[in-house]
């Protein structure tokens, strides 16, 4: 939100007072004086007027986790272990998942407390490529890739999936890039051929690749470069 709007939304200042506070250099964002009404205030920014703190700054956190099979992509679950249970308690607070995986799907899972970042990553208009390694029960036919690029009609959502790229790596093994994140999307796509997905592993989301040094259940912070990607 713009700094002038942020301040005017507080119960103590009207728009005229906000203009004056800024001009008189009485406003600090993250410790620096700001006179710019358009200064972007994020949920992580500390905002002070005359040393009075109106929003406490906190660090934005971004983690990649190698999700193992047999845990739920949720922050709470009454029955099963969740991905948050894999993190130390002090890291769990206020994290959410950017792009869930099914219970038995493995691979790259991103966790953050930055809602703006995760929304940008997962909203359909971003068309971020998610790449999966897929093992199937039956052989993958030579006609499959054309159908993946043409799209599948999903009756429940009444939509046709966007073009997806299927590279066949072996008789029952493929790499699939999709730009959406519909419910059970990969399994439903293979379901069209009545071919069951027996193992599913996410390798990357956009430019962020699962770190090969992470064993299932391990995590690390994203680098500044990965966050920017
Ligand atoms: N598609 C699926 O069917 N399952 C996942 O976990 C991810 C994509």
Automatic annotation (TrEMBL):
Coiled coil: none annotated. Keywords: Isomerase, RNA-binding. Gene3D superfamilies: Alpha-L RNA-binding motif, Pseudouridine synthase I, catalytic domain, N-terminal subdomain, RNA-binding S4 domain. Residues 1-61 form the RNA-binding S4 domain. Its EC number is 5.4.99.-. It is an enzyme of class 5 (isomerase). It catalyses: uridine(516) in 16S rRNA = pseudouridine(516) in 16S rRNA. Signal peptide: none annotated. InterPro entries: PsdUridine_s_RsuA/RluB/E/F_cat, PsdUridine_synth_cat_dom_sf, PsdUridine_synth_RsuA/RluA, PsdUridine_synth_RsuA/RluB/E/F, PsdUridine_synth_RsuA/RluB_CS, RsuA_PseudoU_synthase, S4_RNA-bd, S4_RNA-bd_sf. Belongs to the pseudouridine synthase RsuA family. Responsible for synthesis of pseudouridine from uracil-516 in 16S ribosomal RNA. This is Pseudouridine synthase. It comes from Pseudomonas shirazensis.
